[in-house]
From TrEMBL:
Residues 46-74 form the DEAD-box RNA helicase Q domain. Residues 77-251 form the Helicase ATP-binding domain. GO terms for molecular function: ATP binding; ATP hydrolysis activity; identical protein binding; RNA binding; RNA helicase activity. The keyword RNA-binding applies. This is ATP-dependent RNA helicase. It is found in: Nucleus, Nucleolus. It comes from the Eukaryota. It is an enzyme of class 3 (hydrolase). It catalyses: ATP + H2O = ADP + phosphate + H(+).
């Protein structure tokens, strides 16, 4: 028995030695690799197996059907393997994900990284969807490795994450939650980090994560490798590169250890693939929905993503078009839905053969839906980069795809100019008016029947107008040219909700009035000759003068305060026009929704308005009980109830007859009122029921984000080797002992300990839920 054990130990040692030798060989080969883009080595390496890569990664790749490399993989993987920092940009769908995942796995493997070495690599993605997708690819190709990987994309149960995050070797995450862990999770140590990857790096910046990224990067060790990947390159990306890549400016100096290789896809000058057919058409804003519906009706056998500018637009278009039953299955996705619902939609759309997905730009980047035939950009993208990324959801990895950009006449010239400047020249498509089907009447009747839909339409209208208003590129987005009335009608609304740009107006007016008040003060201090006395403090003032002054100042400042109120709140926080939700209010005119039913945007928030309302109330209170007057033909006011003289009263019969008549009349009135009341009560009951059902349906479909955190679980883990199972790490002493051994074994001296760790059976904490991505703990890259 002992002999057998010794033999197996010997075998293990032998195996380990061989493995280390092979790693040594791989390292030597990659150091000799000529990474120049035109070198024969680079150009001749067509398959993954042509590169000096470990058998583990080759197996992981081939098991998933990846054998040939794409251009970006061919050019960037050898450079990454030589430990250079990289700023890589390549077309959408060109395989960037593998281009950074392979070097991560390969590097950690060659360093013989173990679960006790802590976090070795960090991948930061701008959206949850992209992070999930990257994580899934990592799981697939990394099965052969003995590493722990986790997905941290936000969620409520911070404690749960805190307890596990320190065990991870590779983390795929979104920026906000990562920073939270850096700040709050005591056990989370990033000091050993070897690689940082920023996927869609420019998008991370566009989404306002700059400060978060700066903070994350400042927490990371300087001695690390950094890879920045994006399909487009913006100036902000350059500035990030300067911040996060070492010696960015020393590109030409090959003697420095950390230089940047800016790798671009040499074959293509533009960032859109050649297999993508690009076209555009021009349609008046009020005709857009007709155009979309007609397009869908003529493409029932297609898989299509329809991009709209806001979640409210998406919600409205989805809810109404599904009621018109176009004959193709419809899905919708935006950032206000629950993560579980979003994941479900992604899954459904990925699997669907023919379907339409209405979406915001939350899926514009990185998401890899298979076989999308059409991308339809119904609302104009905010810039060319967004256009490229949206269009890039189709024609991925050499496949064919089509993109249709719908522009309004006022957007056409500006947007085409922007696209042409980037070598993008979509073909113009002429729309046959005769083929276009108008759905305005259908929408009107839908909205008439369903107040919920009307409410959605109003929100969609406002959010669209708002989206145009806030666009930076005023040459493309001309707010003043919006045909708001017709646009509202095209959504089925009876008219455009009036939008008042509260912040802007009050800001301008406040400036004006501030000037006026200054003039008033100066005038008040003017001497008898009318000259302005600026040295008023030197005047001799009586007590009454002072009181008068103080009183007037108060009046003035109150008045001034009222005018400037919308700009500054009590705490002095800036509330002006830039505030996202507060910058416009809507005056409604055609419906009777009560205030609590209104969207936040519609509630008048100005303190002035509230004060005004208060004062009206006050006036009414002060008035005491009201008197009712009627006006005669000459316009004279008389009390509504007058006591008649006896003779006049007797004209209509004696008291008894008149009383009888009066009672009969009142009885009649009461009967009708009773019927009316019953009808109203019935209608109310029905409405209540309908609302309840609607709410239930919406809950099922993933709206009501407010309780997201309550119900969803957004963190998932792959936990590495079995000895990371909670039970096994519960005993601290044992754990410490194992750590010591494993550390020691990395130097190759204690192969028993190493193989013990390696021999552990892999534990999957919740195998059933692993696949649907909703498990809190999943599994592993196994050895
Ligand atoms: N070497 C390869 N062989 C076959 N298919 C590949 C290869 N590399 C990537 N793919 C496939 O190509 C598709 C696009 O890859 P990926 O999502 O990595 O593109 P991307 O460049 O990151 O796109 P985007 O810029 O839109 O994020 C995926 O379906 C992926 O599985």
């Amino acid at each position: 028995m002992a002999k057998k054990l010794r033999k197996s130990n010997q075998e293990r040692q032998e195996n380990k030695k061989n493995e280390l030798n092979k790693i040594q060989e791989l390292n030597e080969k990659i150091q000799q690799w000529d990474i120049k883009p035109n070198s024969s080595m680079t150009l001749q390496a067509k398959k993954f197996s042509d590169l000096p890569l470990s058998p583990k990664i080759i197996k992981g790749l081939s098991d998933n059907g990846f054998t040939k490399m794409t251009a970006i993989q061919q050019h960037s993987i050898p450079v990454s393997l030589q430990n250079w920092d990289i700023l890589a940009s390549a077309q959408t769908g060109s395989g960037k994900t593998l281009a950074f995942l392979i070097p991560i796995l390969e590097k950690l493997y060659k360093m013989q990284w173990s679960e006790y070495d802590g976090l070795g690599a960090l991948v930061i993605s701008p959206t949850r969807e992209l992070a999930i997708q990257t994580y899934e690819v990592l799981l697939k190709i990394g099965k052969q490795f003995n590493l722990a990987a986790g997905l941290v994309i936000g969620g409520k149960d911070l404690k749960f994450e805190m307890e596990r995050i320190y065990k991870m070797n590779i983390l795929v995450c979104t920026p906000g939650r990562l920073l939270q862990h850096m700040d709050q999770s005591t056990g989370f140590d990033v000091s050993n980090l070897q690689m940082l990857v920023l996927d869609e790096a420019d998008r991370c910046l566009d989404m306002g994560f700059k400060k978060t990224l700066d903070a994350i990067i400042s927490n990371l060790p300087n001695e690390r490798q950094t890879l920045l990947f994006s399909a487009t390159q913006s100036q902000s990306l350059d500035s990030l590169a300067r911040l996060s890549l070492s010696d960015y400016k020393t590109v030409e100096d090959p003697t420095l250890r950390n230089i940047v290789s800016a790798i671009k896809d040499k074959d293509n000058k533009t960032t859109t693939p050649a297999t993508l057919q690009q076209s555009y058409c021009t349609v008046q804003l009020p005709k857009k929905l007709d155009m979309l519906y007609s397009f869908m009706k003529t493409h029932l056998k297609a898989k299509m993503i329809v991009f709209l500018s806001s979640s409210k637009q998406v919600h409205f278009v989805y809810e109404t078009l599904r009621k018109l039953q176009p004959g193709i299955s419809l899905l919708h996705l935006h950032g206000r839905q629950k993560q579980t619902y979003r994941t479900d939609v992604l899954d459904k759309f990925s699997k669907a053969q023919h379907a339409v997905l209405f979406a915001t730009d939350v899926v514009a980047r990185g998401i890899d839906f298979p076989a999308v035939d059409w991308v339809v950009q119904v609302d104009c993208p905010e810039d060319v980069d967004t256009y490229i990324h949206r269009a890039g959801r189709s024609a991925r990895n050499g496949k064919n795809g089509k993109n249709l950009l719908i522009l309004t006449p006022s957007e056409e010239e500006g947007m085409l100019k922007r696209l042409n400047a980037r070598n993008i020249e979509p073909k113009r498509l002429n729309i046959k008016e005769s083929k276009m089907r108008s759905i305005t009447n259908n929408l009107q009747s839908l909205l008439f029947q369903d107040p919920e839909l009307k409410y959605l339409a109003q929100k969609a209208f406002i959010s669209y107008v708002k989206s145009i208003y806030v666009q930076k590129d005023k040459e493309v987005f001309k707010f003043e040219e919006l045909p708001s009335e017709d646009f509202a009608k095209s959504l089925g609304l009876p008219g455009a909700p009036k939008i008042k740009f509260k912040g802007m107006k009050s800001f301008e007016k406040a400036k004006e009035l501030k000037n006026m008040s200054r003039q008033l003060l100066l005038l008040k201090n003017a001497d008898e000759n009318g000259e302005v006395n600026t040295k008023k403090d030197k005047q001799v003032k009586t007590k009454i003068d002072k009181m008068f002054e103080r009183k007037n100042q108060t009046v003035l400042s109150e008045h001034y305060l009222n005018l400037t109120q919308p700009k500054t709140d009590k705490k002095g926080d800036d509330n002006d026009a830039d505030s996202d939700d507060d910058f416009m209010t809507v005056k409604r005119r055609d419906h009777v929704l009560v205030e609590e039913d209104l969207p936040e945007l519609l509630i008048p928030t100005s303190k002035r308005a509230q004060k005004k309302a208060l004062s009206k109330k006050q006036i009414l209170l002060n008035q005491g009980s009201s008197k009712k007057f009627v006006f005669d033909d000459e316009g004279n006011a008389k009390p509504a109830y007058e006591v008649l003289g006896e003779a006049e009263f007797a004209k209509d019969g004696d008291l008894e007859t008149q009383l009888g008549k009066f009672i009969a009349k009142e009885n009649e009135l009461m009967k009708t009122a009773d019927i009316d009341d019953k009808n109203i009560a019935k209608a109310k009951k029905l409405e209540k029921k309908r609302k309840r059902q609607e709410k239930e349906r919406m809950l099922q479909e993933g709206y009501y984000n407010s309780d997201d955190a309550e119900s969803e679980e957004e963190i998932r883990y792959v936990v590495g080797t079995g000895n990371l199972d909670d039970d096994m790490v519960s005993d601290d002493e044992d754990n410490k002992a194992t750590r010591k051994k494993v550390k020691y074994s990395r130097s190759g001296k204690d192969s028993d300990a190493e193989s013990d760790a390696g021999d552990n059976v892999i534990q999957i904490e919740n195998p059933e839920t692993l696949e649907d991505l909703e498990s809190l703990t999943a599994k592993l890259l196994q050895g």
